[in-house]
Amino acid sequence: MGKYYQKEIECASREQIRAWQDERLVQQVRHVWENVPYYRAKMEEKGVTPEDIHGAADLNKLPFVSKADLRDAYPYGLLGVPKKDVVRIHSTSGTTGKRVVAYYTQKDLDLWDDCCARALTAAGADETDVCQICYGYGLFTGGLGLHGGSHKVGCMTLPMSSGNTDRQLQFMEDLQSTILCCTPSYAQYLAESIHERGLQDRIHLKAGIFGAEAWSEEMRRDIEKQLGIRAFDIYGLTELSGPGVAYECSEQHGMHINEDHFIAEIIDPETGEVLPDGAQGELVFTSLTKQAFPLLRYRTRDICVLNREPCACGRSFVRMCKPMGRSDDMLIVKGVNVFPSQIETVLLEQGYQANYQIIVDRVNASDTLEVLVEMTPELFSDNLGQITEQEKKLVAALKAMLGIYAKVRLVTPKSIVRSEGKAVRVIDKRKI
Ligand code: DLL
């Protein structure tokens, strides 16, 4: 294990972790009360003061923060330190409304780098590795987040940023990159390009750290096979720093949440009620150590389950499952909840790749769901006569998974636009 394996923290006893959380929560609530008038007003409205918070057991006395609060308080309303102490910002891509801007002190950046270094180490990285980072650099947190982690681990760091696939492959081959960091959809595109160019034998990758968007177990297996690597998941969001809130270990069975920095809760997204361990619901995070942007009980909208079983890797941090989608990504089609990840699972199980697009529309006051799926090259070249049969098979498999009819259209290989960052899978024409 690389020198950045923080065993005494990552494998601490549950009592020790709880003690850190209790102490840090009390300090953090005091910090927010004194320095963030916006949140103090929310606490006052709920009739709670710092004196009421003695540890993590009192967490549910505190009000939630949602994306709407971030928009209301934009740009500086949730800042926890004087502006002169902020050294960096990041921001979400924000497709609707105002962007979310998050702030960092130098200490915030150091702790974030630590979290990303833990993720890289858990994926097997050490100072002998060449780490190629193809997450976007800039306002998006992916590039600079993993960059900081890679420096801490001592890897030779290639700050490639996203896009320019020719250049990515040239560096990957010439500098013999061993660790690849990018979105899973871009990893898949890189794999496709490597095979097309017959470069398989000249690639030295051993592991990939993929996140920022939902991806299924089937997609993991596909990427691992295509690239000959182990593919690890990493989770995070701008509001809480960025990647590295949670990371997978060698067991590849859930992502360990950095519980010395964050407390995770699962709530019912409708009622806000805290749900017991093992229940599926919306993930809520309290950041315990952030100075500049200290969010308490932030509602992520990600639907998830927490697992407190001990992990064979020895880490004692709680694990989160792969998010099953965002509550605001969930489509409601004919009254039925549909997550794009369910559709992806079916496609990959049936031997297709994760190149698809979901189109939802309303025709004659009734919802329609259509899935465009790229044919495999074999199907395209050899068996054109079988297309309708294949489409029928997919319709049946989707019906079994979703409970509703989805029209399936097989389209020619490579006709669906590839993404260099987060893939856009859904076109909901009802909203256009
Ligand atoms: O996507 C941070 C990140 C960068 C994570 C690189 C991992 C790797 P945002 O752009 O603010 O931040 O988007 C956060 O992306 O609430 C989830 O819905 C989704 N997301 C992030 N990681 C995963 C993952 C970055 N591993 C939002 N699986 C989150 C599924 C993910 N969804």
Commentary on this structure:
With 432 residues, this protein is α/β, with parallel strands linked by helices. Helices cover 32% and strands 23% of the residues. It is built from 12 helices and 20 strands. A 9-stranded mixed sheet has the order 4-3-5-6-7-8-9-14-13, with helices on both faces. A 4-stranded mixed sheet has the order 19-18-17-20. Helix 9 packs across helix 10 and helix 10 crosses helix 12. The longest helix is centred in the N-terminal third of the chain and has 22 residues. It is globular. The N and C termini lie far apart (50 Å). It binds 5'-O-[hydroxy(phenylacetyl)phosphoryl]adenosine. 5'-O-[hydroxy(phenylacetyl)phosphoryl]adenosine binds next to helix 6, strand 7, strand 8 and strand 12.
Question: Would you kindly provide a brief summary of this structure?
Answer:
The chain has helices at about 5-10, 15-35, 35-45, 65-70, 105-120, 140-155, 165-175, 185-195, 215-225, 340-350, 375-380, 385-400; strands at about 90, 100-105, 130-135, 155-160, 180, 205-210, 230-235, 240-250, 255, 260-265, 280-285, 300-305, 305, 320, 330-335, 335-340, 355-365, 365-375, 405-410, 425-430. With about 425 residues, it is of the alpha/beta class.
